[in-house]
Design goal:
The chain is of the alpha+beta class. The chain is 21% helix and 22% strand.
Length: 130
């Protein structure tokens, strides 16, 4: 099946694009070309020797990073990790990866940070007889 040749000019090309729209388009193109992505994984042994990578579409885990679901935004990956971590003994972790040359390579492993990480839960107040 042959592709149709593109016309050199489109009817709508006569109007000027505002500088604000040009900046927004450049920003979005640069964002799409950025090879940095985030994946969610579970560190089974705790020492980084065996990881299971989360595959959200299959609702399961894979042993290869190629099976992991890629997230463009870190906050989305953290939200997914938090949602999948509920009721589990170990929290899921985040890895920052690059997808250059069609290969996935880990740049940095992040720990999942909870909002309550600095909060110490207090027990019942003690009643003292003075």
């Amino acid at each position: 099946m042959k592709k149709k040749p593109r016309p050199k000019e489109f009817p709508d090309d006569k109007e000027e694009i505002s500088p604000e729209l040009k900046r927004e388009l450049k920003r979005r193109i640069a964002d799409a070309d950025n090879p940095v992505r985030y994946v969610v994984f579970s560190d089974i042994t705790g020492d980084g020797r065996w990881r299971l990578w989360l595959d959200v579409s299959g609702d399961g885990y894979g042993t290869s990073i190629d099976q992991a679901t890629l997230f463009k935004r870190e906050h989305v990956a953290r939200s997914v990790a938090k949602a999948y971590s509920e009721g589990r003994k170990n929290a899921l972790l985040i890895a920052k990866i690059t997808t250059k040359n069609g290969k996935r390579k880990v740049i940095k492993y992040h720990k999942l940070e909870h909002r309550t990480s600095g909060f110490r839960r207090r027990g019942k107040p003690r009643i003292t007889n003075a």
